[in-house]
Request: fold
Amino acid sequence: MKALLFAVIILVSPLHKSFADENLDKNKAQWEKLSPSEKQALRDRYKEWSSLSSDQKKMLKERYEEFRKLPPERKEKIREAYAKFKQLPPEKQEMIKQRFEELKKLKPEEREDRLNKIKDALKERKEERREEKREEKREERRDERREERREERREERREERREDRRDERREDRRDDRTGRR
Reply:
């Protein structure tokens, strides 16, 4: 009986790929679809990953799992913030990284206090920007009203000149009529 089972396993196994083989084929197909620059980026990431310590890898995996559990809106905000960060000049990126490192070194209460101060400063700056925009809009409206008044005065002067010319033509016609008689 064991020999029969063993024979069936040997005969059937080449016909069925394992789950790992299926993933390997799928991954290979995806790899082939990548452009050379995408392949190089993945190689670079792999080298970077390989150079990390097991603790660093563990921490990154945990962070990734936390990220996966976030609601979609929060994930999108994080992606947008990261995209903005990557667009900053390297010096600014480095400065931000240093500030985060400083925050990590603080005690939880100090960190919370510092973050609250930062939030307050950001709110204040945001309110200042809003007020600046409101003032700009008010100034634009004042400029528009000034320009409208100027245009109205120009139109009034043009109308007065037209009226003066009409009056002059009437007088000329009257003079012509009286001069003929």
Notes: The chain is about 90% helix and 0% strand. Helices lie at 2-12, 19-33, 36-51, 54-69, 72-87, 90-105, 108-180. Residues 1-20 have pLDDT under 50 and may be disordered. Residues 81 and 93 are 12 Å apart (CA to CA).
